[in-house]
Design a protein that fits this description.
There is one protein chain. The chain is mostly helical. Helix content is about 25%, strand content about 0%. The chain is built from two helices and no strands. The two termini are about 55 Å apart. The relative contact order is 0.09.
């Protein structure tokens, strides 16, 4: 706001009008998350060994 008052190309009326406008931010819609995998897909459990220093 303080910077707008020192701007040469902006009038005091424009500053007042801009100050009265609601914020331009629009809230984001919540993402539904990941969809579950289809039931017909094969499921496998794979255990990957790791070195002790990686655990």
């Amino acid at each position: 706001m303080a910077l707008l008052l020192t701007e040469v190309s902006v009038s005091a009326g424009e500053v007042q009008t801009e100050a009265q406008l609601p914020p331009a931010k629009t809230p984001r819609a919540r993402h539904p998350g990941r969809a579950p995998l289809p039931a017909h897909l094969e499921r496998r459990e794979v255990i990957l060994p790791c070195a002790p220093q990686d655990c």
